[in-house]
Fold each of these.
Amino acid sequence: MINIQKYVQAESLEEAYQLNQKRSARILGGMLWLKMSDNTVGTAVDLCRLGLDTIEETEEAFSIGAMTSLRQMELHQGLNRYTRGMAARSLGDIVGVQFRNMATVGGSVWGRFGFSDVLTFLLSLDTWVELYKGGLMPLETFVFLKRDNDLLVRIHIRKKPGVFVYQAMRNQRTDFPVLTCALSCVQGEYRAVIGARPGKAMVLGDEEGLLAEGISQESAQAFAAYAANRTPTGTNLRGSAAYRTHLAEVLLRRNLLELGGMQKWN
Ligand SMILES: Cc1cc2nc3c(=O)[nH]c(=O)nc-3n(C[C@H](O)[C@H](O)[C@H](O)COP(=O)(O)OP(=O)(O)OC[C@H]3O[C@@H](n4cnc5c(N)ncnc54)[C@H](O)[C@@H]3O)c2cc1C
């Protein structure tokens, strides 16, 4: 059980950052993951008074505060318009509505969880992370950084013309996914993201030009097989490595066919 000795609602990012420099301090998101740990937290730092719970949309980008809930993102019209419904599709199977009303994008991205639908979704977009001290960096870089005592302030998604699709496999509803798979084609560049391998989501491009002539049954099969073979998978209680490799190929092929307008699954 988690034991919190002192709770503070920070008045500024600087105050939150300073409080978080102590090893026993923790930043609070929705606390859904944090509360499951068996830990004593010296100071729990709540960012709830810092106005970080909004999604701002401009012509060029979305700027999403760290305290924005997954449910806000799932329902956001602009985000769904831009991603062609991928926000709702990727986030809508995470546990249940009450859970997604509380889970924050800050906690989800900071956690860098291997099983994360959130990371898989965001990695298929041109997503940047804004850290209080570390500044702006691509999510792809942030995912592999060592955890430190910085603060995640906002997520930025740059709007570039593109198409996006998402599939995940769960053994049963509300469970963690066995495999997640997002696919985007942004300004002609394909980007496949495979997560819950069970390791962290990884990004694969079409370095071999297998999709250079466009998407057909054959090129979809060829790229899906190529990407699945290059994706390290592992075994845990939800599935074996061999099953995950098989799923990666199937979900990616389905995503490609859907992106190419040849099939629709959901
Ligand atoms: C039972 C269960 C099932 C789940 N199933 C899924 C699933 O199927 N798919 C999926 O994608 N996710 C799933 N998740 C993860 C969930 O969606 C959230 O990602 C997770 O709960 C973290 O979000 P939170 O807001 O609760 O963060 P918290 O638990 O509050 O925080 C998580 C970590 O991030 C740190 N943190 C939080 N905010 C910041 C910040 N702004 N700056 C710096 N550090 C910060 C905290 O100190 C903590 O270390 C599941 C979680 C649980 C508990």
Amino acid sequence: MLKDKVIILGVTGGIAAYKACEVVSTLKQLGAEVWVVMTESATKLVTPLTFRTLSTNPVITDLFSNELAGLNVPHIALTEKADLVMVVPATANIIGKAASGIADDPLSTMLLSSKAKKLFAPAMNTRMWNNSVVQENIKKLKDLGVQFIGPVEGNLACGWGMGKMAEPEEIVNRVIEILVPKLDFKGKRVLITAGGTREPLDPVRFIGNRSSGKMGFALAQAARTRGAKVTLISGPTHEPLPLDVELVKVETAAEMKAAVLERFKYADLLVMAAAVADYRPAKASPKKLKKVTERLQLLLERTEDILAAVKRLKTKKQKVVGFALETEDVLAGAAKKLKEKGLDLVVANDPSTFDGDLISGSILSKDGKPEHFSGLGKDQAAGIILDRIKGI
Ligand SMILES: Cc1cc2nc3c(=O)[nH]c(=O)nc-3n(C[C@H](O)[C@H](O)[C@H](O)COP(=O)(O)O)c2cc1C
């Protein structure tokens, strides 16, 4: 499957370095040419000999070594022919160096000199992962097109928490997705909504919700990678725009409805992943509301239901997928939405999904049993949702 693909696999000094052995071994079995580059810290955790044996290629640990005599200036020669540079595991340190343009060892130098696709599988202690410097570095790299897989919650060397590396099998599956993309949505026009809406109270305040837009953006990226022409209609979000996706920015539920209805007739598939306000202030003040009374009562009115309007326009050829977020009776609420809104598929989830990178939930279709999934990265969940859409 990966024949003729050249992969540079960087191993850094995380305790999960031993799991990179399985990744290298599987990539080799799939036919890839794998070159392992280790940081000095990584060599203290796993020996270069292990990777040399598994990859059947010399392991690069020193930028100035003469050992790789066959390669003239290895960091240039290798990166020029690489299809993918991946880092498994990726320490907080290499993420920081890559985000800052530091090139002080073979791996960071290759990351900087390579134009190939890049994939990082971070692994670290929960406090390191939650550190805003690490998160800012990740955002910077994502904005530059670097892909990330994991981490997930799990048992770490320091106890239970967020920061466990994605499993080797998942990492290899992602490599396959990147290097041998499925094009089963080729020619399809896909409309996706994402993020939350904001309903103004006055020029500076609004009623909103905690949706980050991550799920909708992950779906847009996945559909684009699989060949679709994607339009993403999004409320305010901090997510980086997927490459080669048209973005329509909206703020209110009314704007989102107008944007969806204007484009729905051209779409083969609509996925409503946005968290659209059900109510809005009946009247938005044109001036900032002053702090004059002890209590302030707000009168809210219903917003228009986008999926109800879509149901009236939907043709037999079009597919419509919704998301149902409930705090209780999640499955029953989702089943009701599926039926009432005439959806082809609904993804049920609970508020733990908000703002995070992981999602647990269930996929319900008209004729099948609910399919449950738990603690998946949103990009992985996006792939599964698209697979199920293909199946209906
Ligand atoms: C036993 C051990 C395990 C470590 N595991 C991790 C880890 O999982 N993630 C991480 O970011 N740093 C971890 N570190 C710290 C890194 O090794 C350290 O920050 C180092 O400078 C990283 O260098 P490198 O990125 O060049 O490999 C660990 C250190 C030790 C001693």
Amino acid sequence: MPELPEVETIVRQLRRQIIDRTIASIRVFWPRTIEGNKTEFRRRLCGLTVAGVWRRGKYIGVEGEDGTFFTVHLRMTGKLVGALDTADRRHLRLRFTFTDGTKLHFVDARKFGRLRLWPCRGESCPGLGPEPLCPETVRRVLKHLRTNRPVKSVLLDQAILAGIGNIYADEALFLAGIHPLTQAAVLNAGQQELLSRSVPRILKLAIGRRGTTLRNYRTLADQSGGNQEHLNVYGRTGAPCFTCGTPIERIRINGRSSHFCPKCQRSGVGRQ
Ligand SMILES: [Zn+2]
């Protein structure tokens, strides 16, 4: 599933490709791709000139010159591509055609991805926590947590911090040397500080590499990301830790797999 770095990569590419372009028509191949009123969606978007493209958590937001705002949530397998190849053709769910003849395709094999119109940008995506790209924000959030949930579950909670998914939660915890089962509320000051730095660092490094491609994620130009070559623990079950050589372990926490080094990430309670 695309997380913050993958969505940010797509947003940056979309800015170059669709800003100042005007939507001429929308063709919908799978109606449930649009959340809410489909007629209204079409009416507001046809003729719209794109003024800005934004990211909020894992959402892509597109704003028109008149303030019309809609989001694209890629979920499991959704992707936006300029050119459509043969394999994607059967999974095409929606197509924008711009007045200059260029096209933008929403392709989604599993059909969980959604497009949604909002009253305005300020009212979009309610309930999301702050962006985790600066240490001060993450530090403030961690400091005020009063939960006995495992820190891994807390990092995945979009209402606490927006945009982090399974890959980057595991990688950030490894970098901070924190066991994923550690209760969030018992992280000591030193651990809070390490995690406050490691979360933004992991995300920014991945943005610089255009995200992580393990299965489905593709950039707008239909290319893979580059961060998969730099993972320390995610997807490396049984392989030796790059730091200490201990085999990486995988456990399930609230139904999600968590990868960690049992030696570099000590203790499940957080008081070492
Ligand atoms: Zn290790």
